[in-house]
Amino acid sequence: MSNFLASALDTLRLSALEAARRALPQRCELCAAASAGELICAACARSLPRLGPACAVCGLPTPGGELCGQCLAHPPPFAATFAAFAYAFPVDRLMHALKYHGRLALSEWSAGALLVEHARRGSTALPDCFVPLPLASDRQRERGYNQASEIARVLARRLAVPLVRDGVRRVRAGPPQAALPWTERARNVRGAFACALDLAGLTIAVVDDVMTTGASLAEFARVLRAAGAARVENWVVARTLPPA
Ligand SMILES: [Zn+2]
Ligand SMILES: [Zn+2]
How far is the CA of 121 from the centre of ligand 1 (A)? Predict the structure, then answer.
């Protein structure tokens, strides 16, 4: 069977599962209480780990929300990071379910949380397009979908902003970033992305589920800027805080 057909069948299978699940009375994904049609009940939603004041560029906590020393000394190729949550329990479980267990309804929920964060930051300017961080093609085939793409699709639809998936790709699949120490991640992603698009003057919002060190997002932003992008923003559901 062709890879394309296999991946189309996977997508069909996942949508059928989602449709079946939606037909059931909604229970909270975290505590299984009745949740009034929401994926996460109101009580669980209130207790999710939020980020406090943070650097607007990289999303890491700073005492008063000012730019962090690292971004001041070495400005990264992206200009802003919007993160809905800190990557901690139980958001880590939700992201795992979205990424590895086909819980695609979580992409709708994730996009909703990101829109709330974007509005909370008083950001009214919309990007010219959303671009999901590309997965290596073999990983996408194994999984049948790219979770970043699922979230980006919802954001694009809800904000009526174009979604761009063609013309950018992962060209080299190193070891998964999660398998590497933080210090080796920047080197592992060097040369990992290619962009065949002319992005001259555009503001690009790159979408991903979790931003860990930011090494992949920085490398991707560098490639988008080299293709002409005027500004690159990261829209991520959860931001990993550095080891204490
Ligand atoms: Zn709950
Ligand atoms: Zn920063």
Answer: 26
